[in-house]
Amino acid sequence: MVCPRVAPAESDVLTHRLPPATGDRRGSPRHGQVLPMRNQSIARAAKRPFRLGTDDVQFLRSWIEKPLATGAVMPSGRALARTMASYVDPESKGPVVELGPGTGPVTQALVDRGVDPSRLVLVEFNPTFCRMLRTRYPTATVVQGDAYRLRRLLESYIREPAAAVVSSLPLLTKPLRTRLRLIADALTLMATDAPFVQFTYAMVPPIPKSYAGIRTEASPPIWLNLPPARVWTYRAE
Ligand SMILES: C[S@@+](CC[C@H](N)C(=O)[O-])C[C@H]1O[C@@H](n2cnc3c(N)ncnc32)[C@H](O)[C@@H]1O
User: What is the pLDDT of residues 131-176, one digit of tens each?
Assistant: First the structure.
């Protein structure tokens, strides 16, 4: 199956390392115009035909069956996955927990960053995704279950403070009190100053910035993802 889609180029680098955007924001060059680097990447990618791979088809199927729980039509692109992973220090001690790994683009970015797969604890609701993850990361711990019951779910899997919790859960589909309980549970499982990393497509924070006891950081928008996304990190104050 072939359909036109903006796909991140192999050589694309993290958006926040690119120069600020100028010129035509739609990414279509006017005659003779020299595009800034980010627009060139987007324009190049837009021209390339995009083939749906097995993961894309599986993901799309999951979205058709459970749109709210799946939270996206396609797996995250590389630029977003790498940005998520960039907040995890591969040298830090303890397990790295991933919530909602899906078909594993962020998991792979974590491994590429140097996180040993045996440190990964992958919490995923969808049994098909769990099977794929077990095959791809045989030394990782794959836990099939509801990430919003994090403490109960992980009490027998986590024996030392986690180095990070990296979440792709569609948080904004949940009421604020459920989101707050998730973050509070995650922070109790994590080492001091370890990050809770979350992406959203919305540009508003999934947890209010001024929430007491939590320090929030936001990445610049990641335009190369479709749809554009932002990465939020939360740490205990
Ligand atoms: C937006 S997708 C992200 C998938 C993948 N990390 C990516 O970036 O492409 C959200 C994922 O969270 C999973 N998910 C949703 N609700 C969940 C829950 N309560 N517990 C565990 N996983 C959940 C979905 O099955 C899906 O794989």
Answer: 999 999 999 999 999 999 999 999 999 999 999 999 999 999 999 9
Inform me whether the pLDDT recorded for 49 exceeds 80: no
Q: What is the pLDDT of residue 171?
A: 94
β-pair type (230-236, 214-218):
antiparallel
Residue with tokens 């987007």: 42
Q: Is 76 in the pocket of ligand 1 (CB under 6 A)?
A: yes
How far apart are the C-alpha atoms of 102 and 52, rounded to whole Å? Answer: 16
Beta strand segments in 54-209, E: 96-99, 120-124, 141-144, 164-167, 196-200
The pLDDT score that the predictor gives to residue 117 is 98
CA of 142 to the centre of ligand 1 (A): 13
Instruction: Identify whether 63 is part of a domain.
Output: no
Question: What is d(CA 200, CA 167) in angstroms, rounded to the nearest whole number?
Answer: 10
Examine the domain organization and report whether 148 and 192 are in the same domain: yes
Q: Is the CB–ligand 1 distance for residue 104 below 6 Å?
A: no
Regarding pTM above 0.85, the answer is: no
Among all chains, which residue has been given the structure tokens 């894309």? 56
- Cα(232) to centroid of ligand 1, in Å? 16
Are residues 85 and 123 located together in one domain of the fold? yes
Tell me the CATH number at 196. Answer: 3.40.50.150
Q: Which atom of ligand 1 is nearest to the CA of 72?
A: 1
CA–CA gap between residue 160 and residue 69 (Å, rounded):
29
Ligand 1 mean position, distance from CA 61 (Å): 13
Domain count, the chain: 2
Q: Does the beta carbon of 168 sit less than 6 angstroms from any atom of ligand 1?
A: yes
Instruction: Tell me what pLDDT residue 70 has.
Output: 87
